[in-house]
Each structure stands twice: as C-alpha cells, then as structure tokens.
Write a structure and sequence with these properties.
homotetramer, 293 residues, alpha+beta, Urate Oxidase, 8-stranded antiparallel beta sheet, globular
C-alpha cells in the first residue's frame, strides 16, 4: 500500500515584461522583466488518485492571472507582486491552501538620455520567493543570483588538514572568484512595498562592499562576513543563505618555457569547482516556517 | 548579533570516467562515466568565524579521494561508490560528521561487437544521493533524470475549475510529454551492491511501462501511478519523488489556411511549462531522516 | 559612402512536431520532431535603406507556412520537406530569389509495443540544409550532430613536433572521444524522397563502423577515413565535412596516493578541447555552388 | 576516389585570465579575461592520410603558447594578442601556412575604489578574429556579441506582403528587442595596438546611439543604419556584419479578463524568433580575402 505525500503544481517560467510608460526617472519608461513561477498546494488527492481535476486550477489560468495582475498592479516591486499573486490563488480557490511564487527579475539600463531605449543590465538576477499559506502565514525571501565577483589578491588558503589524498599546496596569495547566489528572508512582509527596492539595494551593496573590502582566509569566512553585513545593513532581514561556487583560477606553470609567473597568468577552470553553502541568522530571527520549502 | 546555521562545503562536478578493461559482456570494456559532487558538514564554525581551516579538508583533496577510490573500488554501482566515499570522509576526518555524495551517471552503449568502442546512450542520466551521518545514519536515494517521454494520445484534460482568468478549453485528446526527474529512496543500503543495478532497471522499467500503458486524465495521476508501480516493482524502495514538467504541445490552428488539423501538427513550446511535483511513499516507509537534505 | 552587401532574413527555430497517426511499423504513430529555420534573400535593398517592407514576407508567415506544409506533406523526410518549403518561398514570392531551409530532427523510439508511446532517442540530431536559388539551382546537405563516441583504446598520439612550448608527452594508448558533427552534400536532390532515410542510415552506419574499427594515430586520420567510408557507402553523396572536438580524457596521476593507474581512471575535461575540421570530396564531385552558404 | 579538401585544427576555448598588477586607473589591477581559440592550416595531408603527426603542432602546445605569450606580452588589446599569436604559429612552424585566432573578452568592472576587486561586466562580449596567412596576408575582425538592447516604442512593422499564409496584423507600435552580434573588419592592422580599444569603444557607442535614436520600420533598416554609423565613427573599419535575432515581445490579450492592454504587458518569447543577417561595406573597402573564413 502506498500513500500520497507532499505535492504541488503550477506554471513555471512565465516570461512577462511590463512597461510603465513614462513613469521612470525624467519621464523614461520603467521596465519589469520577469520570469515567474507559481506553484499551488491543497486538496489535491483526487487528481492524483483518480485524475479528477475539479480542484486543479489550470496552470494556464495561473499564467493568465500573472499577466492580468501585471496590468492591474503596474510595475511594482517583485516581492509585492509575488505576495499579491500568492494571496489571490489561496483566497480565490477554495481547494488551494498554499501558494509559492518565485520571480527572477532581469535589469535593464537606460541608454543615454533616450526615454525608450535600454540595454540589459549586468549578469546578476534579482530573485524572490513568497509562500502564502492559509494556516502558517506568509514568508518573503529576496535575493540575488549570478553575481560574479573576483578579488585578484588578498586571499589566502592554508592550514587545512593534510590527509593521504591531499596534494594541494598552501597559498598566501590567490585569486578568489565566485558566482554569488544569496537569499535573504524578511522578518515580515514590508508595510510599504517600495521599501523592497531599498532592501535589495542595501543588501547587494553590503554584499559587494564586504567582498571587496575583506582580506580572506577562506570562502566560508567571506560567506559569514557578507551575511553579517547584509543583516546589519537591512534590519528588515533576519536570515541570509549563500551558495558560493569557488571559481578556481589556477596559476599557470610557465617554468617549462623559461618564464616566471608572478601572479599574472591564470587558467580559469570550469569543473570541478568548490561549492560553499551556509546560512546565517539574526539572534532574534522569527521561525523560518515554510519560507524555504 | 548573528549566528551561523546550517552549512556544508565540498567539490562539485568532478568528472570521472572509469574503464574496467575487459570486464564487460563478451570481454568488452565496462565504463562508468560520472559527475561526482561531495559535500561535508561538521565542526566548521571556526572557518566561518575566523578563517581557520584546520577542520577543512580541502575540496581538492575530496576530488583526489574520488579518483583514488575509483581505482581502488573499480567500476562498482554508483550508489555503492557514493556510500564508500561518504563513509570515508566521515570516518577519516574527525571534524566531519556528515557527508553527502551525489553522482550523475551517463550511459554508454557498445558499438556493434567492438569491445572498445562506445556511443553515448540516450538522454537520461542515472542519479544517486547518499547521506552518511555519524549520528543519524545512512540514506541512499537513486533516480533518473532527463528521461523525455511522450504519449501521442490517450491523454485528456478537463473538469478543471473555470475562474475569471481561465480561457483554456477542455480537451479529450492531447499529447502528453514530459522530461522525467524521479528519485527513489531505499529502505536501507543494499547488502549486495550489484543489486543497485537491478533496482535501477526495475524502477525505470516500471516507470516507462506505466507511462506507456496509462490512459491519462492529468499528469498528477500519471505521477501517482508511476510511483506506485515503481514501489511495487522494487520492494527495496520505500518512497518516490517526481518532478514532471508538462512539455506542452499545442495543436496549431490551420483554419486560416483552409486546412484541417486532425491532431497532426503541433507547436512544441519551451516556456512557460506546467510543473508537477509529488511524493509517494510505502505505508511502512521508515522515516526519511536526512535523505533529502 | 557605404553599400549593402549580402543579407538574408527569416524565422529561426520553429519547433514543429508532426504525428502521422498509425502509419508507423505495426500501426504505431510516426513522429517527426523538427526545429526549422528558414532564411530568404532577394530584392531586399529597400527594407534596409528605407524600412520599406513591401518585399519582406513576414517571418511570422514563414513560420505559418512551415506548419501548413507539414499538414499538406505529412511526415516526409526532412530533406524533402526543406526542399518543398524552399521552392515555395522562391516561386511564390517575386522578390525572393533564394531560400535556405535548415531542419534539425530529434529521434523518438517507440516504448515497447505501445503504438502511441515514445522516448526521446539518443543524443544525436539529424540535420539538413537546403538552398534553393532561382539562378544557381538547388543543393541538399544532410548530416548528423551531437553524436558522442569513444574508443577506450586503439588510439595513439606521437611523432608531433616539439617546439619550445611543447610539454605534452607522447602516448601509445589513449582514450579517443569526440562529439561528431558531420555534414554530407548530395550530388543532386534524390528522385525518390524516401531514399533520404536510407542515405542517412548508410552514412551514420559507415561513420560509426569506421570509428569503432579504426586503430587511430590522430583524429584527423579518423576524420578522413570516416569521410571516405561515408562516400563509399552512399554514392548519392559527393562531399563530407566534419567538425570533431577532441574531448580530452586525461589519465589521473594516482602516484601521490601510492596507486597505479593502468589506463583505468580518467578526468573528462570540458575546456579547452582540440578541434579538428576537415572536408573530403569525391573526385568527381559537382561544384559546391551555394551549398555551404 | 576521394580527395582531402580544406582543413584546419587547433585548440578551442582556452580560458585565460591575465592580471596586470597595478597598471589600471589609480593603480588598480587591469584584467584581461579571455576565451582563446587557435586553428592552424598548412601541409597537413599526411596526418589525414596516414596519421603522420610530424607537421602537427599539438593543440596542447598551442594552449601553452597562448599562456606563455600572455606573460610575455602583458595585458594588451585582444586584437594585438591574436595577431602576435597567429604570426608566431605561421612563422615558427614550417608546415603551418595559416593561423586563425579567435578571442572572446569578458569585461570586469572595478568595485568601488578597491584596486583588487571586480564584478563581471554586462552581458556583452568583445570578440576578435585574426587570420594570418603566409601568402594572402593578415586580416583583423573585431566585434561585440550578446549585447541585448530594447526599444519600448518607436518601432513599426507594416506594409509587408500578405500571402495565403500571412496572419500577422500590421503594427504601428511594437517593442523592438535584439541580442546584437556585430563584427567589423579593419582595413589593415592598426599601427598602434592601443587604438583597438578606441575603435571598440567608438563602434559600440555608435551602435548603441543609433539603436536608441532610430525610429524603426524594420530591423533590417536598423541593421543598415547601425552599420553605417559604425563605419562613420571608426574610419579604420571597412565592413560590418550583423546577426540580429528579433526577440519577439508579444502584447498579451487581456480582453478575456475585461482589461485593456495599452502597450504595457508583454510575453517575451523564446522560440521561434526572427533572424536578420546583413553586411554593409565602405565603398572603398579592400577585398575581404580570408577575413571571414
């Protein structure tokens, strides 16, 4: 005998671009370029056991709702949009008791003074995940992904244990490079939706300033310090999680060619890579509940 | 004040190919083509707080260990390899109390009767995740990913609720296509490592047979049935989890061109896509513990 | 002063799936899963110089035409489909004097005896490029891409020049692995469209048999031999072009761990990789004309 | 009987990062982050016909040479580096008569005032392809790739022919978005290598200014104007080639939900996409020779 456990379903990767005509700085257009994924849970045993869809809001309808809400709500912050959409699904569909909304936001930069012309911004993506649960309440997580940073020096790595499989030499000077994925949990939804933008700016700024200003002995240490500074910079946040690949830059051995390599020429490796994951919370962080599910 | 929470670190995507010379059928070579990721947890506060690496087995050493173990253990089943490697890290490193090992295995098919020639197999990847925890014990999860299947008929979708954002027509005949990611939890590590191959074969065979033989009213129903049949076919397993994107094939409207489209011509869409996730367990499944972390 | 030179435009990557109901072996459905790109040239100076679109068949119309032709022509060979579509554009649009049609075909294998169930086939893709030019006539190129093959031995590499930057040791035994992209030019369009399937089978079979049966001293030698055998196996062809990345498998040095590595444990590298390109023609090949443009 | 035709071989995607310590603005480090591919041609019949490698400079040596030259030449412009490397291969290897060098350069931006900290720049990649041929001389092509731009208005598309497969409505207001790949040919190698940077800046600036400042009736028109302005801005160039995918943004129909969509909410489609290719030359451009091979 088997039993159905946790399940959810939804529409993934709805690509939505919203243009607020003339509402940006100096009358420029303001753009929201989003990749939206919704996922619903609730009384869904019937569809699994017998294919009865009477509780299954079609994923096509979820997509339609995202587009309709974009028109209704305008170009608001992604966290606020995700909250509104999540609440809608739970409150309007009797069988649906929980909604997860995820949004990736891609940045666009105005081209010169042209109010209608833009270039895609840097590689980083702004992210958000909202959970709206009928019983366990609401959680908001923001973050940034694909933010690639590098320190060309001020990074050491030594003092690690040397077992029988350890061949790595110690180093007092290496390149430290990583592709940051960071997620930060809000203590509670913000009263003023516009503040989500400020938190994003404060958190990414703290992250970058800390990365640039730290003399590092390990990527884990960098993770902890960046988390600490993010929490300090944005008191609306209570927890930070990082996933940090160590993008290895190996000094090339030029000795066979009679050349020195005084920390100048590196091979940037693809795979394998170190991978550092960690979580740092404020002492008084409220329970995480469903935030990370 | 902030505090360090859950953390782990390791080497991701170690690409290892092992050739067992002449040990395959009819004296052919046997190949293991793996992508290995290891991740360690334990007494790692010091490296986060002060960059003290004395407990940090270098990720480079983790990579070396994988290569050395491949030579020592030969071309064994990936679940068994992951178990051995995980146990090694926890038992040999005092500070390390938990190891997670993940392996993706790519298939190669012998070319004709040539004992040394191979072509990469179908798109599916065999997967495994092993957790070895000093206190909470050992878990083994196997699975398959990127297995793309399609039913050209015998799929309906109707009876779903119609809210104000629902425009999708009901259908009594559609294409059902998905790219299967399935993971199955073993009740306990197998006594005979060779049996992992049999479980993999039994589970994927049950999955495919069920997909092919089911008249479907929803992808959720298919998920449940496939899980049920996997658990029936492989009693060593106690739980199955699926992630099933609904790869939409939309019937193209050819009316504007004076043509019928009697379920012949489809547009295969990229994004968005439906996404169905679910878990099915045996009634008597042991607790999952850390298996899915 | 500047002048407009060569130009073309079209619709790229039209994803089309055609299901021929019950026309496959034993009454199974027959599937054509295509990625179609069309590109048109002709009297297009006006649109470049002044944005006058009167000669510009919309790329949306090109897409529509592909879908309509799929219904009209049924599940024919991709080379024949590309020919028909290319001819249509040139003969129906006065301003269009040349069309290039490209199709990638993905294979599906029937699941057991189920007439409506399929799994995506191996990784290789069947390809075709057709040029239909009002003045210079018609060319047909077929091919295969993403066909990954490996010989675990029977490959040497030595005798290469040793300049001041050469550190690579010679080897009398290495793994030879590559991801084949091959293109073959037909002497002329085939009279019977069904023969395209036979040529594809004969060419890929000759390619694989040669790869498996050859003791290799260089990937270039393999390229030449595979080309030669393809031309021998399919006299309808007159020229073959290969792009062969040398997917390096480096023997891992296990000496530091007191272990031998008797050609057992390899690191499969991503980048960089060797890249071998070459062309082999029949002595009596007709001129290539526009075939490769 | 078959004969060997055009061929070349080399090392692809050598990932090289060069750090010039303290030579950037205000004593910051200067970074060159490159993906280098070299490809050699010459007297290579023997290796194809018999596997005789005596003329085959190993691709591993080509990689080594790139690293060694990076140390010797320092962080020079990529065009100059490619020229030096290409010349080296042809002049030092008797059998090699032609070399093609390709470099992709990824930008890094200094983080604040920190001299050693950087973030990966925008998505665009700077590109170069150099051909050095013993008989036919030298060509230099620069360019930019993956530069994503969008005009939210000032784009029309109408007046195109309406055949039986045309359903696309005309539009007087649409989003125009594309991912620019542009390549520009230099009249001759520049006397002062530092000028390559100025040409790159002038060309990309002209490209962006034209894109932003143009009221467009077709993407072809935009292609021509951008080419014209690039050639005007950088007289060292004589030819420009563009590949411009039309990244469709479709206005979502919100009428079923009782909502207007006044050019606010769009669906950003993946596939298919329009694809516009074209070439524009100066009247007095020297012959292209081997530049684009």
């Amino acid at each position: 005998m088997v039993k159905l456990g946790f399940n959810r379903y939804g529409k993934a990767e709805v690509r939505l671009v919203h243009v607020s005509r003339g509402t940006g700085p100096d009358g420029a257009d303001a753009i929201r370029d989003w990749n939206i994924s919704s996922s619903l849970s609730g009384e869904l045993a019937a569809v699994h056991l017998s294919g009865d869809n009477s509780n299954v809001l079609a994923t096509d309808s979820q997509k339609n709702t995202a587009y309709a809400f974009a028109q209704k709500l305008g170009g608001i912050e992604p966290e606020a949009f995700a909250l509104a959409l999540a609440e809608h699904f739970v409150t309007s569909q009797e069988a649906i008791t929980r909604a997860r909304l995820q949004i990736e936001e891609y940045a666009w930069n105005q081209l010169g003074a042209q109010p209608h012309s833009f270039a895609r911004g840097g590689q980083q993506t702004r992210t958000t995940t909202v959970i709206y649960d009928q019983e366990q309440g609401v959680s908001v997580v923001g973050g940034v992904a694909d933010l690639i940073v590098m320190n060309t020096t001020n990074s050491e790595f030594w003092g690690f244990p040397r077992d029988e499989y350890t061949t790595l030499p110690e180093t007092k000077d290496r390149i430290l490079a990583t592709q940051v994925t960071a997620s930060w949990r809000f203590r509670e939804p913000l009263a003023d939706a516009a503040d989500y933008a400020q938190v994003y700016d404060a958190a990414t700024s703290a992250l970058l300033t800390t990365f640039a200003g730290t003399y590092s002995y390990s990527l884990q240490q960098m993770l902890y310090l960046m988390s600490e500074q993010i929490l300090k910079a944005a008191p609306q946040l209570c927890e930070v999680r990082f996933v940090l690949p160590n993008k290895h830059h190996f000094l090339v051995d030029l000795e066979p060619f009679g050349l020195e390599n005084d920390n100048e020429v590196y091979f940037a490796a693809d795979r394998p890579y170190g991978l550092i994951e960690g979580q740092v919370s404020a002492d008084d962080a409220p329970p995480e509940g469903l935030a990370w599910t």
